[in-house]
Structures are given as structure tokens and as C-alpha cells.
Amino acid sequence: MHKKSCMRPEVKAAIKTIQNAGVDLTVRIPWAKRDITTFVKQAIKEGVTRIIAGGGVGTLSHVANRLLRKGRAAKVSLGVFPLGTANDFARGASVPRDDLAAALHLAATGPAIPIDIGEVNGRYFINVASGGFGAEITATTPQKLKKGLGGIAYTLVGLARVFEFKSYHGAYIGPDGKREEGSMMVMAVGNNRFADGGFEVAPRANLQDGLLDLAVLSADALPPVGPIDTELEDPTNRDDKFLRYRQVPSFTIESDRPLHMNLDGEPVVDQHFKFNVHPGALNVVLGNLTQ
């Protein structure tokens, strides 16, 4: 459980409710990121079959990475206790975000199902990898500015406008080896649908379809926000002028200069990104996705 959340009254109440219901729940609070790795190792050694990650996408992704790298993903399932700021994965997975007791009960007792996991350059991500406007800029932009820009204006072009961002030039190489040259201002690679505080950056993404959804704002000059909103309503429309949307199991992105990428909140920088999906690689407790 994330250290910033452990003292919240509603979190304590949810834990007490579950424990009083007879669920064998042990709480561990990581005071540093390395503690998460230690706790996962301990849980595996003790024969734990379910680990609940209490936090946001970053915490969830870190636990998922440990399980996958330790080769324990088939034996240990993952529950989601949404205690982050945005809880984008929980939103896309229909996990209760406003009722922590219900979320924790689901995480502890609900059935786990296999979901896909994304990988880029040897690192796994469970939710969304985004790039173009810069992980550093995203991390340092004041929250008030993000809210003021609003919705898709922030997600795709808002920061580009504020910081006079210039497009990248490079190439997309599809699973068939076909190479397409072009420009890119912002991109999102979705295993799940939501990122950046509830914005639907990959509207067609599905956690169980064996595909990654690549959405690219392709333009040399900054386009107006209105058409981008319209194109996102039908992202696979071949007549879209600015948005390029693909659903593929693997692809490569090359950039003419170092490109900032954000993997579930973790920043990386490179000029060559090789993406793959691992179908059904991790067992995770989800909500009712039909709602």
C-alpha cells in the first residue's frame, strides 16, 4: 500500500472491514520503491497467491513488473486497490474508485482473469505508454495548468501549445516490416484506455484482445483542438487528417532525436522503441467491464 495513503481514515476503515469479514489480509507499507520489490519477494517465498497493490498506476505497474520478471505471474494474481491520484487503470478495468471498501473486497476475493501486458525495450507496462510532449514536462506541469487546459486539449495538444513543442520526425515500422516515415507530436500506446487523469487516449483498447492501440497525432504544425476531439470519436476513420490509430501486436517507433516516453508514470528516453504485447500474461482482478 502506498505510504501517502496508509493514514487516510477511509483506507483504514476499508482494511478493517475486510479483515473483520474474515479475509486473511496482511498490510505492508513500502517507504521506498525498493521496498515493493522486497515485499513481492517475501510474498512469493511465503507462498502468497494474491498480492493487492494499493496506490496508483505506478505502484500497480511496479508490482506487475516484479511478478513478471520473477516468473511468478502464472501463480500469483494481482488485485487493484485504487489509492492513486488518477487511478487510470482502475477506471479502465471498472474497479470501484469511490468505494474503497468495495474495491478492496473485490481485490481480495474476486476472480482473477488473464490480461495482456505491454512491453517496450524490455520494460513492461500494464496501462499506457505515452510520449511526445515529454515525461519531464508532464511531471513538472502544475496541476492547475493541467486542469485549465482540460480534456483532450491537455492530453494531445495543450502542453504542446503552452511549451511551443515541436514535432518529432521518424518512422513507424509495423509487424509486417513495412516502414512509414512521418512526423509526430504526441503518441499514446494503450494496453488500457485511460491516462493522464481519466482522458481516453486509446478509445478502442481492450485488456484481453492481444493488441496494443497506437494513437499518434501526426502533424508538422499544431492543429486546432476541435478536429482532434472529432477524430478521437472515430479513431479508425481513414479520412482522419491528424490522428493515426492502429491496433497491432507489435511495432517499432524510431525518432530523429531523443524521445521522452512515460511508461505507467516512469520516464524513459531513447530514439528507438520496440513494442510488443504479451497476451494473457498476468492474472488480475477486474470489475464488471460490461458496465
Would you give an account of this structure?
The protein is an alpha+beta fold and 291 residues long. Helices cover 30% and strands 33% of the residues. The chain is built from nine helices and 14 strands. The strands form three sheets. Strands 3, 4, 5, 6, 7, 8, 11, 12, 13 and 14 form a ten-stranded antiparallel β-sheet that branches. It has a two-stranded parallel ribbon with strand order 1-2. Strands 9-10 form a two-stranded antiparallel ribbon. A hairpin with a 2-residue loop joins strand 3 (112-120) and strand 4.
Tell me the overall shape: elongated
Count of DSSP H/I helices: 9
Task: Give the SSE order as H and E letters.
Answer: HHEHEHHEEEHHHEEEEEEHEEE
Task: Tell me the β content.
Answer: 25-35%
Taking the alpha carbons of the first and last residues, their distance comes to: 27 Å
What is the subunit arrangement here?
A: single chain
Helix/strand-derived category reads alpha+beta
Q: What is the arithmetic mean of pLDDT?
A: 84
Brief synopsis:
The protein is α+β, with helices and mostly antiparallel strands. 30% of the residues lie in helices and 33% in strands.
In terms of topology, how is this protein built?
Elements: H1 9-20, H2 33-45, E1 50-55, H3 57-69, E2 77-82, H4 88-92, H5 100-109, E3 112-120, E4 123-125, E5 128-131, H6 135-140, H7 143-149, H8 151-162, E6 168-173, E7 179-184, E8 186-190, E9 194-195, E10 199-200, E11 212-217, H9 225-233, E12 243-248, E13 250-263, E14 266-285
Parallel strand pairs: 1-2
Antiparallel strand pairs: 3-4, 3-14, 5-8, 5-13, 6-7, 6-13, 8-11, 9-10, 11-12, 13-14
